[in-house]
Amino acid sequence: MRFHIQRRVEAAPLSAYAPRVAALEALFTTIAHTRMAGVPVMNHALRVQALGFEPLPLPLQQGEAPAAPAPAAAVGILITPWFMNLVRLPLQPEPAAQGVGRSQRHAVGNGVFDFIGAHEPAIGAYSACSLFSPVFEFVDQAAARATAHAVLATLRAAAPQASEPPPARRAFLLGRSAARGAAA
End-to-end CA distance of the chain, in Å? Predict the structure, then answer.
């Protein structure tokens, strides 16, 4: 069993991701018009759109020591006429190495998801977690975009915080809250 611990990464400003996200959209627009042209899984009511990309810390494997700051990456959703994926996109292009086709777990908001490594010469290595494939359930781009925003809002929602700490065992047994139990 592999465990991943999140380490802090100095987040680059969102504007730093704009060229990478634009390159991702351009690449998949080209793929839509070339490699995917005529493939029956295409929903022609949709177009390629990348949205909601925000910084994401990289995982450490258990026992791994942080030698140097981790390269920054962003996570967001890529909508295409054939899939909707959660995508982890490094800020700097990375070589394919051994990650293509391999699964790696990444925390996104309050959840942990399996991402599959991929590589395209135009953008380098990236990884994706499938949300919908194919995407025939979407009647238009607005419906796909609304779903993508709802997914991101759900994933990034803050964990519920207790309004008051749990009472100490004695206070609990005597029916007192933690605040009242400490004052008593």
Answer: 47
pLDDT at 179 over 80: no
SS3 for 9-31 is CCCCCHHHHHHHHHHHHHHHHHH
SS3 98: coil
Distance CA 26, CA 29 (A): 5
Give the pLDDT confidence of 38-94 residue by residue, as tens digits.
999 999 999 999 999 988 655 444 554 444 444 588 999 999 999 999 999 998 888
Q: Give the residue among 122, 138, 27 at the shortest CA–CA distance from 82.
A: 138
Distance CA 29, CA 19 (A): 15
The pLDDT, as a whole number, for residue 176 is 61
Checking phi first, is residue 97 left (phi over 0); if not, alpha (psi -120 to 50) or beta? left
Residue 53 has phi, psi (to 5 degrees) of -70, 130
Domains identified in the chain and CATH numbers: 4-183 (3.30.1460.40)
Write down the pTM of the prediction. Answer: 0.73
